[in-house]
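so the lab meeting is tmrw and i was supposed to have these ready like two days ago... anyway. pasting both below. for each one the top line is the aa sequence and the line under it is the structure tokens. i havent really looked at them closely yet so no promises
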Amino acid sequence: MAGSGLSLALLLFLLTLYAVNSWLNVSRYKTLSGTADVDRTAFYRAGLVKSLLLFLAGAMISLIVLHRLDGLAAVPEEFESETVRSVLFRVPAGWIYGIAAAWIAVICLASWLGGAQMKRLIERGDVLPKTALAALLPRTGGERFWAILISLNAGLSEELFFRLALPLLLAAVTGQAALAFWLAVVIFGLGHAYQGVFGVIATTIIGALLGLIYLYSGNLWLVVAIHAGIDLWSLVVMPLLIGWPPKLSGRQPT
């Protein structure tokens, strides 16, 4: 494994970039939801590129520096030996995957109900919510194309970063693998501050769920697929089901 000094420098560099990007996203999403003249396609495209550079490139560089590309095929030994994984193995597989499926169903149902309610409120003119959800939902076929790419990329890039590379970097610096793994879950949630307090809590729970599935199954690509599926539902399928955007006599939701 790379020296602790190099690991610490890389960790601080990536976390600084992540913190700055998360802070900037708060104002970016306010602008997107509050201004009709924003080039939404450019916004989607820029978000995709930044995610690729920060999460996918950051994850691969970290794994190369740490000499841990083997983590792409199997759970790293640091997490294999942790108590949390041995405890999980005492739980029947049916319970683990049943609970996971139930949580995913709740997440999808909540996003559908929330989106439908927001659409009704906008159409009635009761409220024009300037939220990250309203800003992110695609309004045209072209935007749906970018939403698909963003969803697929989020599943791949963010899982490689938050479930593998970042925990390994944190473990290399702190020497505490279990703490590192779950600290990465918290950092994942905090990066969604642009979604408000509820969004931070919800994404932290989702991150914890994905982490548990990863530790139990030992399959990183399973959580990549689940993450991408959740985002595809929220950004592509659900908006189509509820008929987004609302019809407002030629006026788009703001």
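ok protien two:
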Amino acid sequence: MIRAYKFLLRPTTRQAVALGEMLRDHCSLYNGALQERRDAYRHISKTSIRYSDQSAQLKEIRAFDPERQGRWSFSSQQATLRRLDKAFQAFFRRVKAGEKPGYPRFKGVGHFDAVAFPKDGDGCRWDSTPHDPQTRVRLQSVGHVRVHQHRPVRGRVKTISIKRESKRWYVVLSCDDVSAEPLPSTGTVAGIDMGITHFLTTSDGAHVANPKFFDAAADELAYAQRHLATFPERTRQRTKKHRAAAQRVAKLYAKIRRQRLDFHHKTARALVRDHDVIAHERLNTAGMTKAPAPQPNPETSGAFLPNGAAAKAGLNRSILDAGWGQFLRILADKAESAGRLTIPVDARNTSRTCLECGHVAKENRVTQAKFQCTACGFTANADHVGATNVLRAGLVLCNVA
């Protein structure tokens, strides 16, 4: 089993400056390689340059610029070139599939936030003892950086990445040969229904409240964004005050992201600990949060009819704030590690099907919270009905398999 571990770095002031220079120089390498590919295709009779061609030039680049490129790990620079190559492979795949191409873009220093080391010990070495306060990660041209290791690392460290989030630095370890840690059997099963009023409802009738982290920080975030917007276009990215205002907004978003991630981990852990089998809806979050298509007015050229875009925007914001997709991925990973079973089921009509008579109708869902069957009169909480139907469908799939 493969598992990733993410730990907070605690660099000194000098090390933090060196880490920033590392990202800057790898960003410069990425943009230079992208420019070379663009120029070759445009000016040299549509010539395509591949990863192997650019990787072969690294030795000359490092010798030409030893201060900026020569001091960093050769393998990490190769990983940066592979990152660009993957972006082009995805671009050509989308072109062939007839999708929106999305040509690879140049990266600003503030948006290039990670450097990968493909092999432990090649430019970056993980030196760890479980629960040792002196854990370090050794980085070439940076030094031994202190790590806040809050849990032991299992398996064999394969790749290491250094990542920046706002003003924080993290090390991400990818490990293989990680053994599962099965939990004792509980003999219970559960279905869950995802929602907005309640983050989720189980088939046992228990509700987990939706913390709505984005809404809680909305006022502070709006103030910070208004302050950022007061800077004229010509001064943006050029003054210390503007950079401080931008960092303030980024810091708030990072805090919301960490709060949401922590909530998802704890909620998923509780479900996995208490149930052997968990059935959940198979949700297409991208489709659910898609903006409604414009509706042209047939009577007036160039005019459009109301399409509920404003109301849909509020719903989309609530769905994205809940983070259903991230939660279900975490739930699946924790279940696999604990020897539990998760079963995704089709979400259609799960909240419209009567538990007593099986009647399916849109009118059964009277309100967001109330379910009342139009055929037999059965009444219950709509989310509880949905969770129970999800569990029933999951058990059917489990028995068939």
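from a quick look at the 2nd one: The mean pLDDT is 91. The chain is about 40% helix and 20% strand. will dig more after coffe
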